[in-house]
TrEMBL record:
InterPro entries: TagF_C (IPR043148). This is CDP-glycerol glycerophosphotransferase (TagB/SpsB family). It comes from Novosphingobium panipatense. It comes from the Bacteria.
Length: 376
């Protein structure tokens, strides 16, 4: 039978989640002309990112709709000072706007709340990222009819959280499949010093962000390495303009880049250009390691990490106890890297699966899910 229906792809987590799912929306609109594909977002930067994917893939039929935030969302953010508090009222609005959709597909777990607002049709989740951290929000996966992840690691973790294996499918890492067809960007610096990418996580309970100023200071004092300070885009989302300017002052031409919110934080501009990754808990580690290279980590909280599965990635490089020994640890990571290549490649395979063709596989899997629901 000819497959038809209305699919809504909802992006309320920010533009950094677009590349984890939008290419699939574009592929469906190209492959299944009788399916209406609409991408919903609530900010201009996410809308622009969605339009860019549609243009790159030639998906003229993929619709992008930017909706306004409800007054209750704006009030919640004003009262709490936390951007994520805006999502509840927004999801209630989305539930009403999409009442005629046959399925809603999302790249984050907060949208599990659509069930609380009465959504009873297909609800599909795509995991963005493929790190080792196991947040408490993993339990929300039980709200979804189908869960698509990159590789076996996420399947094992979801099962451990009590998710029905029948709901889980590994399709490969969408973002890597998409970016693999796009040439890398221009050089970041006008010299040939090795580039260290420092990418702290936004969750301060596990992040090394408290050490960031000291780490940057160590790089300012030496001339062996260039540095790109590129924290997760959520790290400074609530920062005022004056504080943001203070961070920007730490940059140095042809030596140190400080980037707090540009698309380069997540479009792999920096991970492709860097010679070494320095971080803590971000899944960008595995994006970086698709080409095996030296990695190092900052243990900012004195974590007993060696037998903790949340820190599995730390076994792929060297670990510093703080800013004082970070440069020595980076030197050692370069020296010992040949010993790490095999384990790095195995870790990426476990996290990302076979990411070539992931977009096509994911598009086909969503279509099959829709067809199955229409037959039921």
């Amino acid at each position: 039978m000819t497959l038809s229906g209305n699919l809504a792809f909802v992006f309320i987590g920010g533009e950094h989640q677009v590349l984890h799912l939008a290419p699939v929306a574009a592929a469906i609109s190209l492959r299944y002309p009788n399916i209406t594909v609409e991408c919903i977002c609530a900010d201009g930067r996410t809308a622009a990112a969605l339009h860019k994917v549609a243009k790159t893939m030639g998906a003229d039929m993929m619709q992008v709709t930017q909706i306004t935030w409800p007054w209750a969302s704006r009030m919640a953010a004003r009262l709490t000072g936390i951007q994520s508090s805006m999502k509840g009222p927004l999801l209630a609005k989305i539930r009403w706007l999409l009442r005629n959709a046959h399925a809603i597909i999302v790249p984050e777990r907060t949208s599990a709340a659509l069930r609380w607002f009465g959504w009873s049709r297909l609800l599909i989740h795509f995991r963005h990222g493929a790190g080792d951290r196991a947040p408490s929000s993993e339990a929300r996966l039980r709200a979804f009819d189908f869960i698509f992840v990159a590789g076996q690691k996420d399947i094992d973790r979801a099962i451990a959280q009590g998710v029905d294996r029948k709901r889980l499918s590994a399709v490969g890492y969408i973002k890597m499949d998409y970016l693999g067809t796009i040439p890398a960007g221009l050089r970041l610096f006008g010299n040939d010093r090795p580039i260290v990418l420092y990418n702290p996580h936004f969750d301060r309970s596990i992040s090394s962000i408290s050490l960031a100023r000291d780490v940057i200071a160590r790089f300012r004092e030496q001339e062996r390495y260039n540095l790109v300070f590129a924290p997760h885009i959520h790290t400074f989302e609530n920062l005022d303009a004056a504080s943001r300017a203070e961070w920007q002052k730490l940059s140095e031409p042809e030596h140190i880049i400080v980037d707090l919110d540009s698309p380069k934080l997540f479009d792999m501009t920096y991970t492709r250009a860097a010679s070494l990754y320095l971080g803590d808990m971000s899944s960008q580690l595995y994006e970086f390691l698709t080409t095996p290279r030296p990695v190092a980590f900052l243990n900012a909280h004195g974590a007993n990490w060696k037998d903790d599965p949340r820190y599995a990635g730390w076994h792929l490089g060297e670990v510093a106890s703080g800013a004082d020994n970070v440069l020595d640890v980076i030197d050692r990571a370069f020296e010992r890297h040949p010993e790490m290549v095999r384990s790095q490649s195995e870790a990426v395979a476990l996290a990302f699966g076979d990411y070539e063709g992931a977009i096509t596989r994911a598009a086909g899997a969503i279509a099959a899910s829709l067809q199955s629901s229409q037959r039921a």
